[in-house]
User: Fold SIR2-like domain-containing protein from Pseudoalteromonas lipolytica.
Amino acid sequence: MTTTTVHNPDQYMYDFRHLLTHNKKKIGVLIGAGAPVSINTADPNTPRKPLIPDIAGLTELVYQGLDDSEKKVFDALEIDLGIKNIELILSRVRSLAEVIGITEVYGLNAKGYEKLSFKICSIIKAIVSKELPSCDNPYSHLISWINGINRDFAVELFTTNYDLLLEEAMERVRTPYFDGFSGSRNAFFDPSSISSNDLPAKWIRLWKLHGSINWSKNEKGEVIRGNSNDEDTMVYPSHIKYDQTQSAPFSALFDRLKNFLLEPDTLLLTIGFSFADAHITAKLDECLSENKSSAILAFQYKKLDEELYATCAALRTPNISVYCSDGAVINGIKAPWAIGQSPSKNWDIIRSEYWMNNSFKLGDFVTFAKFLASSGGSSIRLQELLLEDKKVEQGHVDE
Assistant:
Protein backbone atom coordinates (compact mmCIF):
# COMPACT_ATOMS: atom_id res chain seq x y z
CA MET A 1 0.00 0.00 0.00
CA THR A 2 1.47 3.36 -1.08
CA THR A 3 1.06 6.55 0.87
CA THR A 4 1.25 10.07 -0.49
CA THR A 5 3.41 12.58 1.38
CA VAL A 6 1.72 15.91 2.09
CA HIS A 7 2.51 19.00 4.14
CA ASN A 8 -0.11 20.43 6.50
CA PRO A 9 0.15 24.26 6.35
CA ASP A 10 -1.62 24.61 9.70
CA GLN A 11 1.16 22.76 11.48
CA TYR A 12 3.89 24.98 10.06
CA MET A 13 1.98 28.24 10.44
CA TYR A 14 1.20 27.38 14.06
CA ASP A 15 4.93 27.05 14.74
CA PHE A 16 5.74 30.10 12.61
CA ARG A 17 3.27 32.28 14.51
CA HIS A 18 4.92 31.40 17.79
CA LEU A 19 8.36 32.17 16.35
CA LEU A 20 7.17 35.64 15.35
CA THR A 21 6.16 36.46 18.93
CA HIS A 22 9.40 35.14 20.45
CA ASN A 23 11.49 38.11 21.56
CA LYS A 24 14.73 36.13 21.83
CA LYS A 25 14.78 34.89 18.23
CA LYS A 26 17.28 36.43 15.82
CA ILE A 27 15.17 37.28 12.77
CA GLY A 28 16.09 38.77 9.42
CA VAL A 29 13.94 39.47 6.36
CA LEU A 30 15.23 39.37 2.78
CA ILE A 31 12.98 41.40 0.48
CA GLY A 32 13.27 40.88 -3.27
CA ALA A 33 11.96 42.54 -6.41
CA GLY A 34 8.59 40.77 -6.14
CA ALA A 35 7.63 42.72 -3.00
CA PRO A 36 6.61 46.13 -4.45
CA VAL A 37 4.89 44.32 -7.33
CA SER A 38 2.21 43.23 -4.84
CA ILE A 39 1.05 46.84 -4.35
CA ASN A 40 -1.62 47.63 -6.93
CA THR A 41 -1.86 51.34 -7.78
CA ALA A 42 -4.49 51.04 -10.52
CA ASP A 43 -7.97 52.46 -10.16
CA PRO A 44 -10.82 49.99 -9.58
CA ASN A 45 -12.02 48.19 -12.74
CA THR A 46 -8.78 48.95 -14.58
CA PRO A 47 -5.85 46.61 -15.35
CA ARG A 48 -3.50 45.93 -12.48
CA LYS A 49 -0.56 48.34 -12.16
CA PRO A 50 2.20 47.47 -9.67
CA LEU A 51 3.81 50.24 -7.68
CA ILE A 52 7.21 49.13 -9.03
CA PRO A 53 7.56 46.39 -11.67
CA ASP A 54 9.59 43.21 -11.24
CA ILE A 55 12.89 42.68 -13.09
CA ALA A 56 11.12 41.61 -16.30
CA GLY A 57 8.87 44.68 -16.20
CA LEU A 58 11.77 46.95 -15.31
CA THR A 59 13.79 45.56 -18.20
CA GLU A 60 10.99 46.29 -20.66
CA LEU A 61 10.47 49.84 -19.39
CA VAL A 62 14.20 50.57 -19.63
CA TYR A 63 14.24 49.23 -23.18
CA GLN A 64 11.31 51.50 -24.12
CA GLY A 65 13.21 54.50 -22.76
CA LEU A 66 16.21 54.01 -25.08
CA ASP A 67 16.57 55.52 -28.54
CA ASP A 68 16.84 53.35 -31.65
CA SER A 69 20.65 53.19 -31.69
CA GLU A 70 20.76 52.29 -27.99
CA LYS A 71 18.12 49.61 -28.53
CA LYS A 72 20.32 47.98 -31.18
CA VAL A 73 23.16 47.70 -28.66
CA PHE A 74 20.73 46.44 -26.02
CA ASP A 75 19.41 43.78 -28.44
CA ALA A 76 22.96 42.65 -29.29
CA LEU A 77 23.88 42.32 -25.61
CA GLU A 78 20.66 40.39 -24.94
CA ILE A 79 21.54 37.90 -27.69
CA ASP A 80 25.10 37.66 -26.37
CA LEU A 81 23.89 36.95 -22.82
CA GLY A 82 21.01 34.72 -23.87
CA ILE A 83 18.60 36.43 -21.49
CA LYS A 84 16.73 39.74 -21.30
CA ASN A 85 17.57 40.92 -17.79
CA ILE A 86 18.38 44.55 -17.08
CA GLU A 87 20.80 43.80 -14.25
CA LEU A 88 22.82 41.37 -16.35
CA ILE A 89 22.80 43.70 -19.34
CA LEU A 90 23.89 46.63 -17.16
CA SER A 91 26.68 44.44 -15.81
CA ARG A 92 27.89 43.79 -19.34
CA VAL A 93 27.60 47.47 -20.28
CA ARG A 94 29.80 48.45 -17.34
CA SER A 95 32.32 45.72 -18.05
CA LEU A 96 32.71 46.91 -21.65
CA ALA A 97 33.04 50.51 -20.49
CA GLU A 98 35.97 49.48 -18.31
CA VAL A 99 37.99 47.37 -20.75
CA ILE A 100 37.49 48.17 -24.45
CA GLY A 101 38.93 51.70 -24.62
CA ILE A 102 38.64 53.09 -28.16
CA THR A 103 37.73 49.69 -29.62
CA GLU A 104 34.09 49.48 -30.70
CA VAL A 105 31.80 46.63 -29.70
CA TYR A 106 28.35 46.64 -31.29
CA GLY A 107 29.04 50.20 -32.44
CA LEU A 108 30.10 51.74 -29.12
CA ASN A 109 33.49 52.35 -27.51
CA ALA A 110 34.18 52.69 -23.77
CA LYS A 111 32.82 56.24 -23.57
CA GLY A 112 29.71 55.17 -25.44
CA TYR A 113 29.09 52.41 -22.92
CA GLU A 114 29.65 54.84 -20.04
CA LYS A 115 26.91 57.06 -21.49
CA LEU A 116 24.63 54.05 -21.99
CA SER A 117 25.20 52.99 -18.37
CA PHE A 118 24.26 56.47 -17.18
CA LYS A 119 21.15 56.47 -19.38
CA ILE A 120 20.01 53.08 -18.10
CA CYS A 121 20.54 54.14 -14.48
CA SER A 122 18.61 57.36 -15.04
CA ILE A 123 15.64 55.43 -16.43
CA ILE A 124 15.74 52.92 -13.57
CA LYS A 125 15.86 55.76 -11.06
CA ALA A 126 12.77 57.38 -12.60
CA ILE A 127 10.86 54.09 -12.53
CA VAL A 128 11.63 53.11 -8.92
CA SER A 129 11.38 56.61 -7.41
CA LYS A 130 7.91 55.94 -6.03
CA GLU A 131 6.30 56.76 -2.71
CA LEU A 132 4.21 54.44 -0.59
CA PRO A 133 0.42 54.77 -0.74
CA SER A 134 -0.93 56.92 2.07
CA CYS A 135 -3.30 54.11 3.08
CA ASP A 136 -2.36 50.76 4.60
CA ASN A 137 0.48 49.05 2.76
CA PRO A 138 2.69 46.01 3.35
CA TYR A 139 5.83 48.02 4.09
CA SER A 140 4.09 49.82 6.94
CA HIS A 141 2.68 46.51 8.20
CA LEU A 142 6.16 45.02 8.19
CA ILE A 143 7.54 47.90 10.29
CA SER A 144 4.50 47.70 12.58
CA TRP A 145 5.32 44.06 13.32
CA ILE A 146 8.96 44.88 14.05
CA ASN A 147 7.94 47.70 16.39
CA GLY A 148 5.31 45.55 18.12
CA ILE A 149 7.68 43.43 20.18
CA ASN A 150 10.58 44.36 22.46
CA ARG A 151 13.29 42.14 21.01
CA ASP A 152 16.59 41.10 22.52
CA PHE A 153 18.09 41.22 19.01
CA ALA A 154 17.48 43.77 16.27
CA VAL A 155 15.54 42.72 13.18
CA GLU A 156 17.77 42.94 10.10
CA LEU A 157 16.24 43.85 6.74
CA PHE A 158 18.15 42.78 3.63
CA THR A 159 16.88 43.89 0.23
CA THR A 160 17.98 43.67 -3.39
CA ASN A 161 15.72 46.59 -4.32
CA TYR A 162 16.94 50.09 -5.20
CA ASP A 163 13.84 51.99 -4.05
CA LEU A 164 13.36 53.96 -0.82
CA LEU A 165 10.09 52.33 0.29
CA LEU A 166 11.52 50.73 3.43
CA GLU A 167 13.14 54.00 4.45
CA GLU A 168 9.85 55.83 3.94
CA ALA A 169 7.89 53.26 5.96
CA MET A 170 10.29 53.57 8.89
CA GLU A 171 10.47 57.35 8.77
CA ARG A 172 6.68 57.68 8.71
CA VAL A 173 6.48 56.19 12.19
CA ARG A 174 9.80 57.59 13.45
CA THR A 175 11.48 54.19 13.65
CA PRO A 176 15.27 54.49 13.99
CA TYR A 177 17.36 52.50 11.52
CA PHE A 178 20.95 52.15 10.38
CA ASP A 179 21.99 51.43 6.78
CA GLY A 180 25.77 51.44 7.08
CA PHE A 181 26.24 55.15 6.34
CA SER A 182 27.22 57.85 8.83
CA GLY A 183 27.00 61.61 8.50
CA SER A 184 24.44 64.10 7.28
CA ARG A 185 25.35 66.21 4.24
CA ASN A 186 27.03 63.44 2.23
CA ALA A 187 26.78 60.39 4.47
CA PHE A 188 29.83 58.14 4.13
CA PHE A 189 29.87 54.36 4.28
CA ASP A 190 31.25 52.99 7.56
CA PRO A 191 32.00 49.23 7.30
CA SER A 192 33.28 49.03 10.88
CA SER A 193 29.79 49.89 12.18
CA ILE A 194 28.33 47.01 10.19
CA SER A 195 30.82 44.46 11.48
CA SER A 196 30.49 45.55 15.13
CA ASN A 197 26.67 45.65 15.00
CA ASP A 198 26.44 47.14 18.50
CA LEU A 199 23.56 49.58 18.09
CA PRO A 200 20.50 49.23 20.38
CA ALA A 201 18.11 46.43 19.44
CA LYS A 202 15.30 48.89 18.69
CA TRP A 203 17.30 50.19 15.71
CA ILE A 204 16.37 48.28 12.56
CA ARG A 205 19.32 47.30 10.39
CA LEU A 206 18.74 47.97 6.69
CA TRP A 207 21.17 46.39 4.25
CA LYS A 208 20.68 47.24 0.54
CA LEU A 209 22.65 44.51 -1.21
CA HIS A 210 22.30 45.92 -4.74
CA GLY A 211 22.60 49.60 -3.94
CA SER A 212 20.07 52.40 -3.82
CA ILE A 213 18.81 55.34 -5.84
CA ASN A 214 20.16 57.72 -3.19
CA TRP A 215 23.71 56.36 -3.45
CA SER A 216 26.28 58.06 -5.64
CA LYS A 217 30.05 58.43 -6.03
CA ASN A 218 31.95 61.51 -4.95
CA GLU A 219 34.97 63.00 -6.69
CA LYS A 220 37.22 60.49 -4.90
CA GLY A 221 35.22 57.54 -6.22
CA GLU A 222 33.78 56.76 -2.78
CA VAL A 223 30.17 55.67 -2.41
CA ILE A 224 28.10 58.16 -0.43
CA ARG A 225 24.44 58.41 0.51
CA GLY A 226 22.99 61.73 -0.51
CA ASN A 227 19.78 63.05 -1.99
CA SER A 228 17.80 60.87 -4.38
CA ASN A 229 17.46 63.98 -6.58
CA ASP A 230 21.20 64.05 -7.29
CA GLU A 231 22.00 64.05 -10.99
CA ASP A 232 25.26 62.10 -10.91
CA THR A 233 25.55 58.43 -11.81
CA MET A 234 23.73 56.27 -9.30
CA VAL A 235 25.18 53.01 -8.06
CA TYR A 236 23.50 49.81 -9.21
CA PRO A 237 25.87 46.91 -8.60
CA SER A 238 25.87 44.06 -11.08
CA HIS A 239 23.95 41.33 -9.42
CA ILE A 240 26.00 38.22 -10.19
CA LYS A 241 29.46 39.64 -10.89
CA TYR A 242 31.53 38.42 -7.94
CA ASP A 243 34.47 40.77 -8.54
CA GLN A 244 32.21 43.81 -8.64
CA THR A 245 30.72 43.04 -5.22
CA GLN A 246 34.08 42.97 -3.47
CA SER A 247 34.50 46.73 -3.11
CA ALA A 248 32.87 48.75 -0.34
CA PRO A 249 30.08 48.99 0.46
CA PHE A 250 29.02 45.76 -1.23
CA SER A 251 31.64 43.50 0.29
CA ALA A 252 30.66 44.66 3.79
CA LEU A 253 26.94 44.20 3.06
CA PHE A 254 27.41 40.68 1.76
CA ASP A 255 29.62 39.92 4.75
CA ARG A 256 26.80 41.13 7.01
CA LEU A 257 24.39 38.69 5.34
CA LYS A 258 26.95 35.93 5.81
CA ASN A 259 27.67 36.81 9.43
CA PHE A 260 23.97 36.97 10.25
CA LEU A 261 23.38 33.47 8.91
CA LEU A 262 26.43 32.11 10.72
CA GLU A 263 25.19 33.32 14.10
CA PRO A 264 23.55 30.65 16.30
CA ASP A 265 19.79 30.13 16.02
CA THR A 266 18.96 32.67 13.31
CA LEU A 267 15.91 32.73 11.05
CA LEU A 268 15.84 34.49 7.69
CA LEU A 269 12.45 35.08 6.07
CA THR A 270 12.47 35.74 2.32
CA ILE A 271 9.63 37.37 0.39
CA GLY A 272 9.58 38.45 -3.25
CA PHE A 273 12.95 36.75 -3.78
CA SER A 274 13.11 34.15 -6.55
CA PHE A 275 16.56 32.69 -5.68
CA ALA A 276 17.59 33.36 -9.31
CA ASP A 277 20.35 35.68 -8.08
CA ALA A 278 23.29 33.26 -8.27
CA HIS A 279 25.60 35.27 -6.02
CA ILE A 280 23.15 35.66 -3.12
CA THR A 281 21.81 32.10 -3.44
CA ALA A 282 25.35 30.70 -3.33
CA LYS A 283 25.97 32.72 -0.16
CA LEU A 284 22.78 31.36 1.43
CA ASP A 285 23.72 27.78 0.52
CA GLU A 286 27.22 28.19 1.88
CA CYS A 287 26.14 29.66 5.21
CA LEU A 288 23.30 27.24 5.90
CA SER A 289 25.47 24.26 5.04
CA GLU A 290 28.01 25.50 7.57
CA ASN A 291 25.53 26.51 10.29
CA LYS A 292 22.82 23.89 10.85
CA SER A 293 21.19 25.97 13.62
CA SER A 294 20.12 28.65 11.13
CA ALA A 295 17.11 28.36 8.85
CA ILE A 296 15.46 30.11 5.94
CA LEU A 297 11.71 30.23 5.39
CA ALA A 298 11.10 31.29 1.79
CA PHE A 299 7.61 32.49 0.90
CA GLN A 300 7.03 32.19 -2.85
CA TYR A 301 4.12 33.57 -4.87
CA LYS A 302 3.90 30.92 -7.59
CA LYS A 303 3.40 27.15 -7.65
CA LEU A 304 6.14 24.67 -6.81
CA ASP A 305 6.89 23.80 -10.43
CA GLU A 306 7.18 27.49 -11.31
CA GLU A 307 9.61 28.32 -8.49
CA LEU A 308 12.48 26.21 -9.79
CA TYR A 309 15.36 28.23 -8.31
CA ALA A 310 13.79 28.28 -4.85
CA THR A 311 12.75 24.62 -4.79
CA CYS A 312 16.17 23.48 -6.02
CA ALA A 313 17.80 25.46 -3.21
CA ALA A 314 15.52 23.81 -0.64
CA LEU A 315 16.08 20.31 -2.05
CA ARG A 316 19.86 20.60 -1.75
CA THR A 317 19.87 22.46 1.60
CA PRO A 318 17.40 20.96 4.13
CA ASN A 319 17.37 23.99 6.44
CA ILE A 320 15.82 26.04 3.63
CA SER A 321 12.04 25.62 3.58
CA VAL A 322 10.08 26.89 0.58
CA TYR A 323 6.36 27.64 0.88
CA CYS A 324 4.58 27.95 -2.48
CA SER A 325 0.92 28.41 -3.33
CA ASP A 326 0.24 24.70 -3.97
CA GLY A 327 2.86 22.98 -1.82
CA ALA A 328 6.18 23.20 -0.06
CA VAL A 329 9.69 21.81 0.20
CA ILE A 330 10.35 21.18 3.90
CA ASN A 331 13.27 19.18 5.29
CA GLY A 332 14.19 18.34 1.71
CA ILE A 333 10.77 16.83 0.97
CA LYS A 334 8.68 18.28 -1.86
CA ALA A 335 4.95 17.71 -1.38
CA PRO A 336 1.56 19.38 -1.91
CA TRP A 337 -0.39 21.13 0.82
CA ALA A 338 -3.19 19.29 2.61
CA ILE A 339 -5.22 20.84 5.42
CA GLY A 340 -5.27 18.63 8.50
CA GLN A 341 -6.67 18.81 12.00
CA SER A 342 -6.76 22.33 13.45
CA PRO A 343 -3.99 22.90 16.00
CA SER A 344 -6.33 24.86 18.28
CA LYS A 345 -10.03 25.49 18.80
CA ASN A 346 -10.04 28.94 17.18
CA TRP A 347 -7.61 28.19 14.38
CA ASP A 348 -10.06 28.89 11.54
CA ILE A 349 -9.63 32.61 12.22
CA ILE A 350 -5.86 32.37 11.83
CA ARG A 351 -6.08 30.05 8.82
CA SER A 352 -8.07 32.64 6.88
CA GLU A 353 -5.00 34.90 7.01
CA TYR A 354 -2.84 32.55 4.93
CA TRP A 355 -5.18 30.01 3.27
CA MET A 356 -7.68 31.22 0.66
CA ASN A 357 -9.45 29.37 -2.14
CA ASN A 358 -7.53 26.20 -1.35
CA SER A 359 -4.22 27.99 -1.84
CA PHE A 360 -1.40 29.20 0.42
CA LYS A 361 -1.17 32.99 0.12
CA LEU A 362 1.80 34.17 2.19
CA GLY A 363 3.93 34.35 -0.96
CA ASP A 364 2.08 37.60 -1.68
CA PHE A 365 3.87 40.43 0.14
CA VAL A 366 0.61 42.18 1.06
CA THR A 367 -0.75 39.04 2.75
CA PHE A 368 2.63 38.17 4.25
CA ALA A 369 3.06 41.59 5.89
CA LYS A 370 -0.50 41.54 7.26
CA PHE A 371 0.16 38.13 8.78
CA LEU A 372 3.29 39.45 10.48
CA ALA A 373 1.52 42.56 11.76
CA SER A 374 -1.38 40.54 13.16
CA SER A 375 1.15 38.38 15.01
CA GLY A 376 2.54 41.39 16.85
CA GLY A 377 2.55 41.65 20.61
CA SER A 378 -0.21 44.29 20.56
CA SER A 379 -2.80 42.06 18.90
CA ILE A 380 -5.52 41.38 21.48
CA ARG A 381 -7.14 38.73 19.33
CA LEU A 382 -3.91 36.80 18.96
CA GLN A 383 -3.18 37.08 22.65
CA GLU A 384 -6.54 35.52 23.37
CA LEU A 385 -5.80 32.71 20.92
CA LEU A 386 -2.38 32.18 22.44
CA LEU A 387 -4.04 31.79 25.83
CA GLU A 388 -6.54 29.38 24.28
CA ASP A 389 -3.67 27.39 22.75
CA LYS A 390 -1.95 27.16 26.11
CA LYS A 391 -5.11 25.86 27.74
CA VAL A 392 -5.46 23.24 25.01
CA GLU A 393 -1.87 22.13 25.55
CA GLN A 394 -2.51 21.83 29.29
CA GLY A 395 -5.77 19.94 28.78
CA HIS A 396 -7.95 22.63 30.37
CA VAL A 397 -10.40 23.02 27.50
CA ASP A 398 -13.55 20.92 27.42
CA GLU A 399 -13.98 18.80 24.33
